[in-house]
Amino acid sequence: MPMGLAPEQIPPLAAELRARAKEAGLDAPPIAVLTTLPLDDGAVARDRLARYAEAGASRLIHGARYADAAAFRAMLDRLVAAAGG
Questions:
Q1: Which of 14, 21, 60, 67 has a CA 20 to 30 Å removed from the CA of 78?
Q2: Residues contacting 7, CB < 8 A, separation 6+
Q3: Do residues 62 and 48 make contact, with C-beta atoms less than 8 angstroms apart?
Q4: Regions of the chain where pLDDT drops below 50
Q5: Exposed e or buried b for every residue in 71-84, given b needs 16+ CB within 10 A?
């Protein structure tokens, strides 16, 4: 999927990808979305995760930059908290 798509943009693209896979005799591929979640607001992040899942995404890749390992760990902790884990 192209980067930064909104959840409502996923279904037609996912359907096309799955149809092409079926025509080629392949299993349905996983649908991965590359985006950035609002980690400062866990409720909004969880809502967005749910909307992507409802749209057909089987994986979500949170893209972010970080200065060092400590900043990465802090972002990871916020991501886990936002996901409800």
A1: 14
A2: 48, 51, 52, 54, 55, 57
A3: no
A4: none
A5: eeeeeeebbeebee
